[in-house]
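#lab-general

N.A. 3:47 PM
ok so I finally got the sequence cleaned up, no stray characters, all 212 residues accounted for. can someone with queue access submit it? mine expired

B.Y. 3:52 PM
send it over

N.A. 3:53 PM
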Amino acid sequence: MSSQQPPDEPVYDDRVYRSSMSVVTGVLLLALTAWLCGDAVVRGAGNTPWIALAVALLVVPLIVAFTIRPAVFANDDRMRVRNPFRIIELPWAAVDAVRAGYSAEVLAEGSKYQLWSVPVSLRERKRANRQFNRRGGLTGRGLSAPDEGAAATPGAPPRAKADQVVDELRELAERGASRAGAQGSVRVQWSYEILAPAVAGALLLIVLLSVG
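B.Y. 4:20 PM
back already:
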C-alpha cells in the first residue's frame, strides 16, 4: 500500500532570498584573485608561487563565503539560512520572531541568527520614508505623487527591500507555524567545505612566511 501525502500538506518550491550585488562583487573579487595569484604562480620565483597558491587557498573560500554563498530559502514549513560558515534550518514552529533593525535576523529557541543575504540599507529605508512623507504632503493638498504606483496599497508606506523580505518571512512564519511539517527544533550545521580549505591555506601561508 503506497503512502500518500495528506491533502493539507502541499509541497512548494523554496523562495530564495539573496543579494545580487553581493554575488556580483564576489565574482569580481574571484576574478581579481585568480588574475593576481595566477600571475604570481607563472612569473614568480622562489617561494612566491607557493605563497600565491596559499593565499588563493585562504582567500577564495572566504570570498565565496561572504559574497556568493549567503542565501535564505523559505517554504511553507521551514526556513533554511545559509550564512558564511553555518547552515541553520528553522522550522516555523521554532521561530519566535523575524525582524530587521540594523541587520535582518531571526530569533528562535533563545538564539539569534543573522540573515547575511538580506542586507539592511538605512539609506534606502530613509529614502522610502521620505517618499511616503512627500506623498502624504501632496495628498493633503489634493495632489497625487508622480511616482506613486497604481498597485501600491493606499496609505501604506513604501518599504525598503530588506523590510519587504522580512515582512514576507514573518508572514510565512505566522501562517506555517501550525503546520505538521513545520514542527521540530532548530538545527545548525557548520560548513566545513568553507572552513577546511581556508584554515589549510592560512596554515600553509604561515609556514611559508616563517620559512622563507
